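Here is the promised in-class demo. Please do not try to memorize the tokens; focus on the logic of going from shape to residues.
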């Protein structure tokens, strides 16, 4: 199906080519096929053919821009073209997704456009283009066609923001309301978020729910890691299930495509039951499920293997184009390009920490490919009817006041009503606690409901609570007469009896002796130690009898000791904390020998002048037999060097390195930090900045005692974006021109690939510091011309693509 140009290709079929509406790797292969109940086939795609087949009922029969969307319908045997139309405006357009309404009398088509006159309808949500400018300026769209003659355009709207990039990659229709859901990407953090939804503010992936006439935004939200400047995933599949739960899958990592060079999935939300809660390399598949009304995050997880992030292309799980299917019953069926780059033993240099996860008993658990494997994934969420379930604790029977925690374990419910059966007000909390103050048997009920649930929308559970009010409360206090002997303890009975009977007491003193009196006499212990004293109280009229209380008492005869350690010497300005090893101390008195004191157990102190000081600790404890103890320790505070430097040029000069002159006094070694994450230990370094700006350069100087001194100065730098690569090199070991490097300035990211005459990739690097030495797999390569592709993005947002030949000479 097609014409005289490219059909079914969005902008550029080259894997790493991008522009116009091709934003994500794989966007060139996006399309959608749907089958109606009678077997007719509907297709949404794009074309740049000027003679793409259309039918008389088309809303457009000519190519209007560089590329147009197309949508067409064929009979079940593909013998008759029933309806076909360009879907276009004055720019580039692409149709990615299709969905029928519940009666299959209308079909919705969604995608992306940079046309300012794309076909929309009066009264729709946003009939005019949003007006973004710049490279990649696009809007999303969704339109509605009649599925039957005359196949007219019923409704149409733009979807997006006034920013430079918005596209719709999925469309679904609710089976319960016939409302329309769209899913896509939007840069800039301005996509509308309605009240009461789950959201990751400022993120660049969105979901919106419109009414069936595409006139009103009913609900919308965004999700991602909160960075408004980059998308986190390339969307792959989209579903609204029979209960209006929303499912989305996608993958992260650009595979070399320019716009998404920094769009990784780090920081995206996951749930506590996630299969994989954290992405190690930022290039995983991501699944997210939002509840009805997008009010909650029901599930979110990463999925994939973990590899060294420096292998940016090879380890990422991804999809090369098209879509995967989700079941309306809430089951994910996902196809994935997995374990790209092959198993570590088949692709030298790949460092992976865990394999792509599979399950026992599947057709294949083995990663045996030299490059990508096809992985198939199924996740069943078992969404069903509302079921009310209660659990309670820690006790569901006892004496008043009885506080019971009630746990809501219901399934698929959104609203709840608790009735405690004691006349108190109901509550709509999820889980709750309640205190019963009067005796009785109470039936607690939980009514759970979800008007959008499948099959059963309400359910009620019951729980029995038994409460009594006749209680006894055993308690006592104690005092030690002398901790240094003889060892005597006295006990005071403070128990309370509300049962109205005659209480009986049993005292167990923890040394094998006991007493049955209400107020025992003073008790003499045989020696020092720890004893558990227990009082057992009984009353046959109490609701819980007997009841018990215990206290642990410690009898000791001890001395205290003042012990601590400090460094022999420290550099001036270095704080220290004495290591306290004192025993049996209740109060501390520190004197640092310079007029300053402290009463803390572990004080931190910093001397303000060099010299030799005596630090003194006086430790005290009134219950110790010796009362107090004193210890002195000496510390030497060393003076440091004086750090200073100058630099040239004083005024920023484009691409001229900065020369630093060390002016430090009494220093023996140096550590430079140039303010751009680059350091040096040279005495007088020369540094080339890669960005224009003012940098805080710091010099830390150390003397022979290893004491530091630091000074920082603001250093200006000016860098103009430049890039270049030699046309030839001679890796013959003579020390000149042996390694081929990319050189330039203000380079943010780069990707250099070099191919031999058979198209085999013999070298690749993303770093200016890594060059080609003319070998492949350790073997010198022959003298000839090699093709290269160099993709560079600069710090000012511009980019450059270089292609050509390099001659290897020997």
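The designed amino acids, position by position:
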């Amino acid at each position: 199906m097609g014409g005289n140009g490219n059909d079914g290709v969005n902008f550029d079929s080259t894997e790493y080519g991008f522009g116009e509406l091709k934003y994500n790797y794989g966007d060139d292969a996006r399309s959608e096929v749907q089958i109606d109940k009678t077997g007719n086939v509907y297709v949404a795609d794009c074309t740049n053919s000027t003679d793409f087949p259309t039918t008389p009922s088309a809303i457009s029969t000519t190519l209007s821009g560089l590329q147009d969307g197309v949508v067409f319908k064929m009979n079940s045997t593909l013998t008759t073209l029933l309806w076909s139309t360009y879907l276009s405006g004055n720019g580039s357009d692409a149709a990615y997704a299709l969905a029928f309404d519940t009666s299959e009398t209308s079909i919705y088509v969604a995608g992306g456009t940079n046309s300012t006159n794309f076909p929309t309808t009066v009264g729709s949500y946003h009939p005019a283009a949003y007006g973004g400018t710049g490279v990649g300026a696009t809007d999303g769209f969704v339109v509605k066609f009649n599925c039957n003659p005359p196949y007219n355009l019923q409704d149409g709207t733009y979807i997006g923001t006034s920013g430079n990039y918005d596209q719709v990659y999925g469309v679904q229709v609710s089976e319960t309301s016939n409302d329309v859901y769209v899913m896509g990407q939007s840069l800039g953090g301005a996509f509308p978020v309605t009240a009461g939804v789950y959201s990751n503010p400022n993120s660049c992936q969105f979901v919106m729910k419109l009414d069936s006439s595409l006139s009103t935004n009913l609900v919308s939200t965004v999700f991602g890691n909160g960075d408004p400047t980059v998308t986190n995933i390339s969307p792959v599949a989209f579903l609204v299930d029979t209960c209006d739960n929303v499912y989305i899958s996608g993958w992260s990592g650009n595979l070399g495509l320019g716009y998404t060079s920094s769009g990784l999935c780090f920081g995206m939300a996951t749930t506590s039951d996630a299969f994989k809660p954290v992405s190690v390399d930022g290039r995983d598949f991501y699944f997210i499920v939002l509840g009805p009304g997008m009010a909650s995050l029901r599930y979110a997880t990463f999925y994939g293997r973990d590899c060294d992030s420096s292998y940016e292309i090879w380890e990422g799980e991804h999809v090369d184009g098209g879509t995967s299917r989700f079941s309306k019953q809430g089951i994910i069926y996902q196809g994935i390009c997995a374990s790209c780059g092959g198993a570590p033993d088949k692709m030298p240099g790949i460092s992976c920490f865990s394999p792509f996860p599979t399950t026992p008993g599947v057709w294949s658990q083995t990663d045996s490919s030299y490059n990508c494997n096809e992985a198939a994934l199924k996740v069943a969420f078992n969404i069903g009817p509302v079921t009310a379930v209660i659990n309670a604790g820690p006790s569901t029977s006892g004496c008043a006041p009885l506080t019971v925690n009630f746990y809501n374990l219901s399934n698929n419910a959104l609203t709840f009503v608790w009735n405690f059966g004691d006349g108190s007000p109901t509550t709509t909390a999820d889980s709750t606690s309640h205190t019963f103050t009067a005796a009785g048997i109470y039936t607690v009920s939980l009514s759970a409901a979800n008007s959008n649930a499948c099959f059963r929308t309400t359910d009620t559970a019951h729980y029995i609570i038994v409460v009594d009010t006749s209680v006894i409360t055993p308690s006592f206090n104690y005092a030690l007469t002398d901790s240094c002997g003889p060892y005597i303890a006295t006990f005071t009975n403070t128990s309370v009896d509300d049962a109205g009977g005659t209480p009986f007491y049993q005292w167990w003193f923890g040394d094998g002796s006991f007493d049955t009196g209400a107020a025992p006499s003073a008790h003499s212990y045989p020696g020092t130690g720890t004893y558990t004293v227990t009082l057992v109280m009984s009353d046959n009229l109490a609701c819980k009898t007997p009841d018990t209380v215990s206290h642990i008492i410690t009898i000791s005869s001890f001395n205290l000791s003042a012990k601590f350690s400090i460094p022999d010497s420290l550099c001036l300005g270095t704080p220290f904390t004495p290591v306290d090893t004192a025993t049996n101390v209740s109060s501390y008195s520190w004197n640092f020998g310079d007029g300053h004191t402290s009463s803390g157990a572990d004080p931190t102190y910093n001397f303000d002048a060099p010299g030799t000081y005596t630090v003194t600790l006086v430790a005290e404890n009134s219950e110790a037999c010796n009362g107090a103890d004193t210890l002195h320790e000496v510390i030497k505070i060393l003076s440091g060097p004086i750090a200073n430097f100058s630099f040239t040029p004083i005024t920023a000069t484009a691409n001229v390195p900065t020369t630093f002159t060390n002016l430090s006094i009494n220093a023996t070694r140096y550590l430079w930090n140039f303010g751009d994450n680059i350091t040096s230990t040279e005495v007088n370094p020369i540094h080339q900045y890669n960005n224009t700006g003012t940098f805080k350069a710091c010099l830390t100087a150390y003397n022979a005692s290893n004491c530091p001194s630091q000074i920082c100065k603001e250093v200006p730098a000016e860098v103009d974006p430049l890039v270049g690569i030699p046309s030839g090199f001679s890796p013959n070991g003579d020390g000149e021109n042996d390694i081929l490097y990319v050189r330039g300035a203000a380079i943010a990211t780069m990707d250099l690939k070099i191919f031999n005459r058979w198209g085999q990739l013999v070298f690749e690097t993303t770093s200016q510091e890594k060059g080609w030495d003319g070998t492949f797999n350790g073997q010198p390569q022959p003298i000839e011309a090699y093709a290269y592709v160099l993709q560079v993005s600069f710090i000012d947002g511009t980019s450059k693509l270089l292609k050509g030949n390099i001659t290897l000479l020997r």
